[in-house]
Amino acid sequence: MDVVIYHNPDCGTSRNTLALIRNAGIEPHVVEYLKTPPNRILVRQLAERAGVSIRDLLREKGTPYSELGLADESLTDDQLLDAIAEHPILLNRPLVVSPKGVTLCRPSEAVLDLLPAQQGEFVKEDGERVIDEHGRRVATA
Known about the structure:
two-stranded antiparallel sheet; Arsenate_reductase-like; EC 1.20.4.1; 3 helices; elongated; Arsenate reductase
């Protein structure tokens, strides 16, 4: 299965998502989007394939979102894409592309819908058990 993850290694959610992909027995194509930002056309295509708006792909925390006035609902998609192109940190992560679709994997478990079965237990960095020793998703309380 061919999988691509738009990844930020400094992000725990992104690291957990990458680890879940690998726990399914897949070595994905890892795109560190801060080093190699996707172009405007690709960002638009990713949003369309994920069924979300460009605005839905914006990250506020730890970015120049407020300083750039991006909360202004009158901004067009082209203006938002300009901001992402200028400041790739504005692109929320991780975005994962697989033959089953495209998803913004927040929380990281959202990636499970894009993957084959997990191959064993998985525990997030924060200690939360997500997959049991049989590769089955653990029910949350």
